[in-house]
Amino acid sequence: MRVLCVGEDSTRGNGRPYEGLSKAAVDGSVSITMSGSAGVVETLRRSHYDIVVIQQASPDMKLLRHIRNSRVPTPVMVIALTSTPLEVAELLSIGADDCVPASVDPAELLARLRAIVRRVSGHDSLTLHIGRLTVGVDRREVHIDSKPVPLTRREYDLVELLALRKTQVLSKETVLDSLYAGESEPYGKVIDVMICKIRKKMRNFGIDEPFTTLWGIGYRLNEVAFAPLGARASAVESRTGQPAKESCIPVMSGINIMSSTTLDLV
């Protein structure tokens, strides 16, 4: 999950996330990029972020109103040191997706962030259903035809990421940032290796090509592969062209949309 955090921690003035957000990032594979309020709309238009977190000593309606008036669709959460019920109500009416105090428990904050991102992605439930594929977000489990697929923690994170954004092509840089947020950067081929391992595991469940590789760009979930057998045959016959044959050849580096100010959390 990529988070654009706007504002400063006024309790310390060091331009770092509030403690709860920092802990949520470490515990939940969240990548945080710090930003000032100036130019935030341009940043959101230039790069993809799953959610914006505005952290302030007290709610400032101007920044939120500026983001919403710019018609940027990215969801926004406000974290405030102090706020009144009337201020929270106004924030929500302007367009905030949530407003929480700075003292919020990291586990609750992470759950709220995930819930907002999941809802914006079109998934209201904690369980994602894509044909024969079921992803239990709350249990962190993947099933095919109700049978559990044995995945490592990172492999699950990758499947969940692609399932949540099933209509999008994700560059390798985006995947790396989502899976290894706040950690030392892994070697370049780690995603390619992980993709190959997941493919091999899913073949045991009759899923030949769970992912579509766009060479030099990135990966996308192959929804057709998870369709019920009868529906899949019909879908393949109706296609105007044949899909490219998948393999475990490493994908070339895609467009790097990472901000140079990405915060490394330790």
UniProtKB/TrEMBL annotation:
Organism of derivation: Gluconacetobacter dulcium
Record has Transcription regulation as a keyword: yes
UniProt GO cellular component terms: cytosol; protein-DNA complex
SUPFAM superfamilies in the cross-refs: C-terminal effector domain of the bipartite response regulators, CheY-like
UniProt keyword annotation of Cell inner membrane present: no
InterPro entries, A to Z: CheY-like_superfamily, OmpR/PhoB-type_DNA-bd, Sig_transdc_resp-reg_C-effctor, Sig_transdc_resp-reg_receiver, WalR-like, WH-like_DNA-bd_sf
One example GO MF annotation: phosphorelay response regulator activity
Transmembrane segments: none
Gene3D superfamilies membership: 3.40.50.2300, Winged helix-like DNA-binding domain superfamily/Winged helix DNA-binding domain (1.10.10.10)
Identification of the protein by name: Response regulator transcription factor
Gene Ontology biological-process entries: regulation of DNA-templated transcription
Record domain OmpR/PhoB-type: where: 125-223
Pfam families in the cross-refs: Trans_reg_C
This protein's UniProt keywords: DNA-binding, Phosphoprotein, Transcription, Transcription regulation, Two-component regulatory system
Domain Response regulatory: 2-117
DNA-binding region, residues: 125-223
